[in-house]
Structure formats: C-alpha cells, structure tokens
Give the backbone structure.
Amino acid sequence: MKETRDITVNVNGTDHKASVEPRLLLADFLRHTLGLTGTHVGCEHGVCGACTVLVDGDSARSCLMLAVQADGHRVETVESLGRIGQMNALQESFHEHHALQCGFCTPGMLMTATDLLCKYPLATDDDIRHGLSGNLCRCTGYEHVVKAIRAVVAKAGRTR
Amino acid sequence: MKPPVFDYIAASSIDMAVAALAEAGGEAKVLAGGQSLIPMLNFRLLRPSILVDINRIPGLGFVEETANSVRIGALTRHFQLETSAVIARHFPILSRAMTHVAHLAIRNRGTIGGSLSHADPAAELPMMVLLFDARLHIVSSGGSRTVAARDFFLDPMTVDLDGAELLSEIVVPKLPPKTGWGFEEVARRHGDFALAAAATTLTVSGGVIAQARIALTGVGPTALRAAEAEQLLLGQALNDGLSKRVIIAMHDAIAPQSDLHASSDYRRHLAGVLVGRALAAAWRRATEAAA
C-alpha cells in the first residue's frame, strides 16, 4: 500500500503542495499541515459545525472530508474573509452585534453564513435559524448571531 | 476521533470503481459524499481496507427527465436535488423533503446514492424512493441489475447491495396527473434525523381517490409503506372519519423503536398525527388540481 498521496490544494488563493496520508482529515490538513488554525475542530463527526469551510465555494465540514479529496480543489477558510482592521461586512456585523463570546464556533458560523447569504434569500429570522441549525454555539443563545446576519441581509437591500 | 489507516483510490470511471470493489473482496467502502461514512471512520465503527472514492467519476451526478420518469445519478448532491427545476416541477414533495435533510454544509456534499446505500432508518430519502416506487440501478464488475425500492431496504443500515456492487442511478416514475402531496416531519432540531416523518400522495379521479401512497420513516427498522392503510383510501373521498381509520390501520402496521429521543408510543402517536396532516394536504392539493 502506498503510504501517502501527493496533493495540491488551493487554499485562500494560494496553491499548497503536500504529501499526505489518505486518512488525514481536511480539518487537520488546514490546521496542522498549513498552520491555518482559524478553522476550529469541535466534535470531529459533523455535528458542531465549527470546522466549516468553503470547498469550491460551497460550505462543507472539513472534519467530514479527507485532504486527498480536496486535491485540485479550492478551499476557503475563515482567514480568507478579512484580517484585524480590515474585516469584511459579515465579520463587522458579528462584532457590531456581539455575535460571539468565547469565539470557538465563530469561524464555522461565519463560513456557514457566507454560504447561506449566497444561496438563500433569508427573508425571515426563522430562515436564518434553520440555516444555522447545524452550527452549535454554547455562549450566545444564537440571538445575536441571527441579528448580525439579519443586518447583513438588510444592508444588502434584500427583503425582510 | 481520527480515521484508521486505509488505502485509497480515486476512481475515474464506474468500471474502475467496481473493479476496485471486486478486488477488495468485500473489505472496501465506497466514498461518495462521506457525510455518514467519515463520522463512522472517525469513530472507528468501520475499518475498511480501502476507500473507493467515486467523486471524480464524471457524469454520475445528474437529474434528467425522460418521457415517463426522472433519472437521478447516484452522485447527485442533496443541494442539487433541493434546487433542481426538474424535481420542483415533477416531484415538489421531494423538493420539500430535501429541505429537511441535514444542514446546508451536509447537503452540499451528501449524495442520494450514499443516503440510500447507508439506509439510516430515520433518513428522508429511503422514504421518498419508497413513496415513488423508484427503481435502483446497481452495477458491479459482473454486470448490472435493477431492484425495486421496496425490495432494497432490508434492516437498519442494511440494503440489498453486496460489497462489490455500486448503486449508480435512481429512476423515479412520474406521478399521474391530479396527484396531490403532503410531507410532514418532526425532528428535535431542524435538520436532525426525523423522530418520525410521513410522505403521502393521493391521485384523485371523479371526486374519489384512485391511487394512494403513504410512506413513513423513523418508525421502524427501515423506511416503509403503509400498504393496508393505503388500501382503505381507494375509491373514497377523504374526510375526518376515513383519515382516522387510515391512521389506526397504520398504527397497527408499525412497531417504532424507543430510544433516548422518543418512546415507541410517542413515535407511533406522532406518526399518526403526521399522516393525518399529510393526507389532508395531499387531498387539498389533489382536489385543487382536479377542479
């Protein structure tokens, strides 16, 4: 059995080449191989949503994908959204609405919300809550997270 | 919470995939969306010798309309089904059902072939293919065969598929005209597996029910059709009394599990309420269409 596979993954706009074991999870590839520790790992079985990233623009649990599956694909992590002093509109809105406390779930919330904003009108708060139902937060009670996303929807001039 | 060691092959064709499955002699697992398989690997509930990744096989994810049916490729992602215009036109009940399947990040990756092959007893898609009397195309290195959905699901996470076989396509016959539908599900949290769910279609002709289908999930070892309850509806117009008799017949036909989420009695009661609501919605849609 060949022990490792050579892969090239475009992460946040940069191609990364690596030799990985087939069993290496995408989450661990991002965190340990590339040092991108913005992606958090909570449950490691697809329940908590903390490790959510975008793969070819679509949100995906990076604990439910193997790094070899990302070979030749484009991955975006929370590090792609902005940086301190230059946060994007969604991050600013989370800041503005106090949508985080400990911050552990926040990278997953942000990447999930990024995909939700692309794919759904999010016309009601219920729609936002349903969209966030796969992301667990133990601090906020979700209220402020919903408000933060609602504000982004409103600012983009969509219907309430 | 890391997968055990396994070999890995990214198949570039169905032939290559089934050859690898045959060579592994039943020790392989097919990696489609991976949304159930990878958690099971992380928990080390499975230790396959090799994963056969079918994600790079071109042309395995599609929704295609034919004269009498809609063909769905096994690698079609849940989100594709949820948003497919062909599905919305011919099977609006399936569009609705897909919004209950897990969460967006899971729907982006998960596939219909994977969900049917995995056959979780509380999943939506096994119930839906049973409802539609769909046919499943299965390939192996020895050839191919077709199995009816109602013969496919054998037990929890056990289907009529041996280790060398791959589910490649699902063929869903179009519904007759003047068919109404109802879909009802209760889960603890939106997107979770159903505590119980019901899907029904009623075809109305001359003011009475000409064809009735009732499918359920979460209330037995596999998704199921309530065949005796369906029979009671034929030739009748739906009313509260008939609905109650159908629910009683359905109650007698199911034996739900008790677990930490809900008792058997609760699930049985819930299934009845959901069937009642789904039948009412199906009747309303069918009679509006017939009017």
About this structure: Residues 229 and 250 of chain B are 6 Å apart (CA to CA). Chain B has three domains: 7-53, 63-173, 179-290.
